[in-house]
């Protein structure tokens, strides 16, 4: 006797053709045109089915990427994309304790849904509906349920193995949960020493799970940013976007004719890593170390904990260094091997500042924490440096 359902088992499940009323519902979620079975009601819609009323909302009404809005407005496209987009959205949507729910319905042999305490989010139908209503309407049968921490553990494992063919087995087999628990134990702290569940809670790190190439599209200067990274990895390579102005000065010309003048950080620091992909890791830590070097040359050196545009709706957390000199502010970005005026940097990377700390804060933190012996990772000081320093001073005043 099989202990869990398989793809072959799912293939044997008899599915029914959608009736006239269900088709009318799905037509509405594509065209947004009311019909005999679907009518608007304040901020939601009402679906009439066999004398029952089912309130619902459209998934596309959420603050989603442009690419998801386009998919959701086409029945064939959203059904084709629902598997991978659901895997991505369960980690990136701003929901409280979301779960990935795996099962089948009267009309689907296999479906992935997002579930919260009260609602079901169905990408394949562009629906948000009360759980009980959804289960009754589509006769949904649950096979397995995974929270975002378990999904992140699965993703990290599959990514480390470079083998995502094992994903379906993790999704369909509830007995694999003990393996997932072991994976979580091994990765309960990330490379900064930060509790992984806290990272995921605040979407600091975990919302990158199951991202596709298309999730990094729709940046204002997407092509230019790719070309710039390629050039700064290998400055001798020709680029149609970049002109060498001489005297260590370069100019990036965007497709809209906007000009971005910059220098290479590697012209001032002999660090081989700046010419490798290793530089893209540990931006928070490297920004602090870079600031320590720059303070020997400049007095006004700041570490900025901020964020940069990932696509048209989402950001990722990123740190860089700012130096005030010659009545201007320049950004020194280790990850991008780049020195550039702040205003140009903010426009190019759609960068936003969250916290800005003078390098002296880090010197104080190091000294004060040496006495307290708290673990400070490389992320927290960049975003909460002043607050942490003030708290440490309070602790010291009590124990001195």
Fold topology:
Elements: H1 7-11, H2 20-31, E1 38-41, E2 44-49, E3 52-57, H3 66-72, H4 75-92, E4 99-104, E5 111-115, E6 119-122, E7 127-130, H5 131-138, E8 141-147, H6 148-161, H7 167-172, H8 177-186, H9 196-201, H10 222-233, E9 242-246, E10 249-253, E11 259-263, H11 283-294, E12 301-309, E13 315-325, E14 328-333, E15 338-341, H12 342-349, E16 352-358, H13 359-372, H14 380-399
Antiparallel strand pairs: 1-2, 2-3, 3-7, 4-5, 4-8, 5-6, 6-7, 9-10, 10-11, 11-15, 12-13, 12-16, 13-14, 14-15
Helix pairs in contact: 6-8, 13-14
Task: Walk me through the structure.
It is built from 14 helices and 16 strands. With 400 residues, the protein is an alpha+beta fold. Strands 1-2-3-7-6-5-4-8 form an eight-stranded antiparallel sheet, sandwiched between helices. An eight-stranded antiparallel sheet has the order 9-10-11-15-14-13-12-16, sandwiched between helices. The radius of gyration is 25 Å and the shape is elongated. The chain starts with 6 loop residues before the first helix and ends with a helix. The relative contact order is 0.08.
Order of helices and strands: HHEEEHHEEEEHEHHHHHEEEHEEEEHEHH
* Helix content estimate: 25-40%
Q: What's the number of extended β-strand segments?
A: 16
Mean pLDDT, rounded to whole units? Answer: 87
Shape: elongated
What characterizes the major β-sheet?
8 strands, antiparallel
Query: Helix count?
Result: 14
| Low-pLDDT regions | 202-206
Structural class: alpha+beta
Proportion of beta-strand residues: 15-25%
Rg calc: 25 Å
How would you write the strand order of the largest sheet? 1-2-3-7-6-5-4-8
